[in-house]
């Protein structure tokens, strides 16, 4: 008789702590990603330094790929609409769509992260990440790591943990799980932001800034959960909804809780006035990580916010709508206008991402099946265009790394017409020109908003789009109509990055010209809406 | 043959041509030009064959195609032409080969006026062909969403043509052009989206019971007056920017000054017509009540454009700017004709769209020939060209005279119809707009006198007259202008049924002739 069987026998007799029932099949995508992450940590500990990269990359690809396939099969075969893991997670159409979106975008981002360029310079393997982030740039410690041939491979498990958190975040059916997911996705991202190989101080500053502001917003989020618990006596979204429907409880707790919770969520997706971190972090972080944040994190945060607002606070819409209108208008207007003054390409794309968050909030405000499905479509379309655009940013390089300053991009259209043309296409997609995915997405979201009577908001959105078009067009002017600088940047395309760009481009074209299949998929995913 | 997807083929062909042109190796410039010309001629021939099968007395929309495109949003890939759109498509497909032939040297390494050398020749021709595809598409679309898509897509090739092949201030002009049009287009987008929930309403509430963007369906909508006014404004502002009318015209002179002259033929001759075409087709037929409501204001703006454009044209020192301002004046005439809401005025306006395309096209082509020779668009840089290049001067004169609506040349017929048709309802507007006819004589003849008349300036001595290629470019246009000046009937025959449909939809009848000269009562429903 071993001890363990004894313990279980006691537990079985007492019945006080029943083993939780886990629907392994339905939560398998998360388990696969977390499993790959844990495996990655073990690889870091056990595999030799030189071969780690070659072990980590396949693990990461396999983990994400298997999770993606599982998600597809789950949605296709079972079309689940139930809660899993004792009600902690909701597995339903919108969740599976969001998880699939996050996983596929993570796969594309992984291509960027894993790309180490075409060769070696100065003995060290080219890549986007510092071998030892804590070493001061140019210090002795750094030289030693470079001489030792150390390569940064911790990014892979860190990224896996972040992606795991991201696919858990929109699935969370209670606020506590949601908080755990938020932290699981955020903490690795804070670290990843500080790993840039070039412009190390900027990168470290970005990481610290992101961490401090992120911790602050987590505190808001947690406080909101506490107040809502005080109101409803439960952290389950459906219980909160039921309590609101009963019109019982202390309403000031509820409203304060909703407000604080919203602050935490809006921070993550970069809604104004909680957007301050975005430009700095997007600029400082290694560009592949920026691509990951601009696509997957945004999808995940929107997934969480729609679940919270559609499930828990749907009947409270008269209270939160004015607030969300204000945030959406501010986000669109500030994002579009401030972007005009930017001179750094990554900062400009960061403000563009803020403006897009504003457009996406229209879908949240609509609170209808169409609002939800249009948001899902927009997220997929925007995610692909973002990854593609940031992938191109990684390709345009100066002697000191990526050519960040916009003026360096002058005349790129004459040096590398294909790269510049592709980037112009992504910019046109961001601007919402027809026959690009950006237009279809905007059209879907605006239509949903008009149907729900938010026409004034759509007019603001349209004017913001016109303003935003200005700075997208300005970059196109710079690339095509200006003459190139003789010692301008060169285009360096690693094979994996090229594949990522090609995928982003294909998705942007297909979702713009023949969006029907994906619209159908988003429509099917939202027919039953969220599980409660 | 009736099931043959004529319009889709006409749209697809130039796209295929553009792709072909862009895969030809960079060095083989002659081949690039030949392929581009060949494709555009093929398109013109096909369009001609299609037009021969058009039955003016038949159903309103012919050569219809309708497939689901995005079912989720009720969007069809729906094409079809009525008389007005057919003539505009013909205008486009005739102008494009001539523009390609006229651009033979424009995008060359040698460059036109201050065109920086070493511009990609094949990109220029690929852009021209893609422009042709979008032009055909925008006139052929019978689904409002498809129309919007082409309306926006038009901008992109033109933007790159101005921005890459224009003059010194080209990027400023290109951005101004794009942002003005994009802004208007986005306002229209709100209105387009708004139509969907309106059409999705049940029939009892004035909807159709099913969300759609099909023009023929949407024109059955019964929209409540307040909403209709907003929607009308959304469409109208977009079209007024495109057309362009004062006070939102300022992008056109800049774009015209910077753009290569042959491309201007398409920009002013065809692209801007999308604005007036849109007013006639969408503003009037989708929102008849709102159109009647807005008419007085629109008429005032139209008359203002007519006179303002003409006065400013007189003061220009740059030929391309000058012609651009004359076009603003002429667009005023077209808008006046559309909103006068009489059958004469509207037929005149629809005909004017075509005539203006040819007349202004001819003028820009000749101006382009002059620029290629003298490397300048400034009037002051010329003088006495008549003696050096008589054929060029003669073509310039005919083009100019047609632009000032000399009887016997095509625009006269349409301008006359517009003024007469307007007179029966808005007497003061007709009288005021006649002033512009006088001003037109001033700006055209004075420009002719300064550039062509007098002793030959030293700078123009030794310039060559039109080459054989250039003669082939200009001769067909001039022939059309003269032919349509004497025999406008075949075109009017095609246009009239569509115009009558529009008028019936707006519920306007021609006022009874009034010999006492009083302004006739508005025929609108009370």
Automatic annotation (TrEMBL), chain A:
Any Pfam family matching the protein: Proton_antipo_M
Key words, A-Z: Cell membrane, Membrane, NAD, Quinone, Translocase, Transmembrane, Transmembrane helix, Transport
Major place of residence: membrane
Key word Zinc present: no
Catalytic activity: a quinone + NADH + 5 H(+)(in) = a quinol + NAD(+) + 4 H(+)(out)
EC numbers, comma separated: 7.1.1.-
An MF annotation (GO) of this entry: NADH dehydrogenase (ubiquinone) activity
Compartments, as annotated in UniProt: Cell membrane; Endomembrane system; Membrane
Name of the protein in its database record: NADH-quinone oxidoreductase subunit N
The species this protein was found in: Actinomadura livida
Gene this chain is encoded by: nuoN
UniProtKB/TrEMBL annotation, chain B:
Domain named NADH:quinone oxidoreductase/Mrp antiporter transmembrane: residues: 141-439
Tagged with keyword Methyltransferase: no
Alphabetically ordered keywords of this record: Membrane, Transmembrane, Transmembrane helix
Pfam family, one: Proton_antipo_M
Transmembrane feature ranges: 6-23, 35-54, 74-100, 121-139, 145-165, 177-196, 230-252, 264-287, 293-315, 322-343, 349-372, 392-414, 426-446, 472-492
Stated family: Belongs to the complex I subunit 4 family.
NCBIfam families for the chain: NDH_I_M, PRK05846.1-4
Protein name: NADH-quinone oxidoreductase subunit M
Species annotation: Actinomadura livida
